[in-house]
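Weekly sync, protein design subgroup
Attendees: M.S., D.O., the rotation student, P.L. (late)

Item 1: inverse folding check
M.S. brought a backbone from last month's batch and wanted to see whether the design step gives back something sensible before we order anything. D.O. pointed out we never logged the input encoding, so this time it goes straight into the notes. Structure tokens as presented (334 positions):
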């Protein structure tokens, strides 16, 4: 989906059309929080996802800042996913605004399917999306980002040299800032330059597993299947305080609230847990975790809260706390 959160807000509030819109946190750029989504008008000012709201405000003071309405975005996402399932029952849901479809069993041309899918979403929901069609997930992901917004891009096995190799290495799934810097240090900036590196050298630089991945990905090789169902491994919630705090009552009250939410989330999904973890980030951005593993599986809020406070008691709270989080893991299906 194209700038999904901002697009949903524009649909609810037509007066936002054509204006720079930033969605994130409480919607107040004077408070702590990060950008969840920025409209394409806002992106022209350099605003990007995960950027601090305060930085976004400096880049574009006239932007309209809105709080995250996750409930509404999830509802609209469900409508989008229902449309996708009409095109193929084989769907991997990879996020609130993204999914993979296997259309290999459909007789129509891929381009026709892509155009029809885009038209249905536009007509039913008044939202635009960008579709990438390719022989595998890796290339489909790359294709979907090549002509945003409202794009349709098809990559065939013969298009690697022309369409994919000139792209920056960051366009490869799984290549983050650290890998980008490492590759830049050895003179590699594009996917094509990466594809020219012998596999032995990549394994030398990045280890066997990741080196092999980079070698294959740069050549458009990806044999990972669509995962249509998976079991969650954990459930977590965290909060960044608007001001760093060393007030025990504030920290304890916040942790109690977080444990209740993760317990509710877990019960709603139908799981029991055995491990409870507390995460704390201090004012200097150092981050630590402490975990408590229970003797039995549980979904009891009281038991989870007690375990969380036992974990909290193992922190030295000498400095002010910036963020606190709670996670339950080691699941068993009820």
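Designed sequence read out in the meeting:
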């Amino acid at each position: 989906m194209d700038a999904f959160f901002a697009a949903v807000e524009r649909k609810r509030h037509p007066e936002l059309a054509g204006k720079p819109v930033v969605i994130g946190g409480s919607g107040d750029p004077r408070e702590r929080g990060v950008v969840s989504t920025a409209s394409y008008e806002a992106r022209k000012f350099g605003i990007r996802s995960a950027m601090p709201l305060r930085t976004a405000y400096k880049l574009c003071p006239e932007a309209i800042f809105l709080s995250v309405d996750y409930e509404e975005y999830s509802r609209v996402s469900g409508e989008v996913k229902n449309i996708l399932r009409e095109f193929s029952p084989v769907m991997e849901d990879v996020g609130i605004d993204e999914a993979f479809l296997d259309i290999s069993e459909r007789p129509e041309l891929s381009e026709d399917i892509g155009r029809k899918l885009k038209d249905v979403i536009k007509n039913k929901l008044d939202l635009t999306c960008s579709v990438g069609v390719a022989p595998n997930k890796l290339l489909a992901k790359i294709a979907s980002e090549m002509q945003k917004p409202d794009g349709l891009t098809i990559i065939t096995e013969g298009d690697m040299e022309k369409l994919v190799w000139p792209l920056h290495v960051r366009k490869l799934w799984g290549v983050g800032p650290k890998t980008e810097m490492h590759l830049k240090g050895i003179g590699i900036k594009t996917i094509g330059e990466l594809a020219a590196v012998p596999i032995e050298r990549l394994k030398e630089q990045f280890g066997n597993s990741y080196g092999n991945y980079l070698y294959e990905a740069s050549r458009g090789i990806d044999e990972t299947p669509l995962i249509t169902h998976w079991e969650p491994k954990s459930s977590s919630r965290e909060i960044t305080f608007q001001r760093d705090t060393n007030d025990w009552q504030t920290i304890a009250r916040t942790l109690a609230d977080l444990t209740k939410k993760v317990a509710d989330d877990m019960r709603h999904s139908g799981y029991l847990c055995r491990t409870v973890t507390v995460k704390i980030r201090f004012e200097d951005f150092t981050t630590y975790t402490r975990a408590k593993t229970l003797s039995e599986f549980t979904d009891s809020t009281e038991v989870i809260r007690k375990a969380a406070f036992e974990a909290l008691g193992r922190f030295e709270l000498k400095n002010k706390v910036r963020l606190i989080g709670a996670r339950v893991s080691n699941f068993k299906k009820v």
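Discussion: The domain at 4-68 is CATH 3.40.1170.60 (MutS, DNA mismatch repair protein, domain I). The chain is about 40% helix and 20% strand.
Action: P.L. to compare against the previous round before Friday.
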